[in-house]
Amino acid sequence: MNRSARSSIPHPGTQIQDEAPLDTAKPSRRGRRRRMSLFGKIGLALVGFWLLMAVFGPMLAPYKEGALASPFSFASYSAAHPFGTDYLGRDMLSRILIGARYTVGLALGAAVLASGIGTCLGLVAAVSARWVDEAMSRFFDALISIPSKVLALVAIAAFGSSIPMLTIIAAVAYIPGAFRISRSLAVNLMTLEYVLVARARGERLFYIARVEVLPNMIHPVLADFGLRFVFIVLLLSGLSFLGLGVQPPNADWGSLVRENIGGLSQAAPAVLMPSIAIATLTVGMNLLIDSLRRHAGFGQGGSK
After folding, report:
1. How would DSSP label each residue in 195-255?
2. CA-to-CA dists, residue 68 to 40, 87, 95, 177, 267, angstroms
3. Given this structure, which CATH class describes domain 55-296?
4. Whether residue 147 has a cis bond before it, omega within 30° of 0
5. Vertex 184, ends 179 and 188: CA angle to 5°?
6. Phi-psi region of 256 (alpha: psi -120 to 50; beta: other; left: phi over 0)
7. What is the pLDDT of residue 304?
8. CA distance 176 to 144
9. pTM for the complete prediction?
10. What is the spatial distance between Cα 184 and Cα 191, in angstroms, rounded to a whole number?
11. pLDDT tens-digit profile of 167-218?
C-alpha cells in the first residue's frame, strides 16, 4: 500500500506529461483554416481585378468613350483592337474597361445598401418585442414574394431608368433576402448564454445587438453580401439587355451585349467579350464566397 501511495505522488522536479498534448491539435487546425484554397485564390484574383478595373479602367482604356476607332464594324481580334470592334467600329476593350464602373460600381453600391439595411432591420427584429418581429417579418415575406425582375420592371416603368434609380431598385429588391438571413442568425444567437447574461446585467438592446450579436454573425453576413452582389450583377445586366438598364451614351456590360447582338451570326468578339466579363466576375465571386465559407469555418458554433 505504501508503494502504491508513493507512485501516485509525483517526485519533486518531475514534470507531468499528460497535460502537454492537450492543445497540440488546435494550431494545426487553425493553420489549415487560414490557408485559402486554390479556387479561392482564383476567385479573389478575378474579383480584385474587376474591382481595380472599375476604378482605373477608364484611365487605362486605349480609346476615349464613344470614339470611332476603326472603319470596320464587328472586326475580329487584332493588335490594334484585342477584343475587336462593335457595330459602330468602336474599340471593345475600351468599352468593357469603361463599362466596368457601371456594372461593378452599381452592383457594389446596391449590394452594400441591401445587405446593410437588411442586416440592421434583421437585428432590430431579433432584439425587439414579438409584435415588432412579427410585423417586420410579415412585411418582408410579402415583399420577397414579388420576383426581383418584375419589381424592377414595374419600378422602372413608374420612375424611369437612371443610375441612382437602378441602384435603389436593385437594393430594394434584395433587402428582404438580407433581412431574413440576418434575422435568422440573430434569433439563434439571442438564445445563447452570453446574450442571456448581457440581458440579465440590464444591458440595452442596442448594446446587445451591436456588441454581443453582430460580431458573431459577421462572417455569414459577408458571405450573403457576396451572393447579393452576384444576384444584382445579373439583375442589372438583364435589365440592360432588355434596354431598361444603363442608358446611352453610357453602357454597362449588359448593354454591350444587347448593342452587338447583330454580330452573333458572325461570331464577333463584340458579343463574346462582355459575356465573358460578366461570367468571370460572377464565377470569381462565387469561388471566393465558397472559399471564405470554409476558411471561416461557418456552422461550428456561435462564437465565430
Report:
1. HHHHHHTT--HHHIIIIIIGGGSHHHHHHHHHHHHHHHHHHHHHHHHTT-SSPTT---HHH
2. 39, 10, 11, 43, 21
3. mainly alpha
4. no
5. 145
6. alpha
7. 37
8. 6
9. 0.81
10. 12
11. 999 999 999 999 999 999 998 888 888 888 888 887 788 888 888 888 888 8
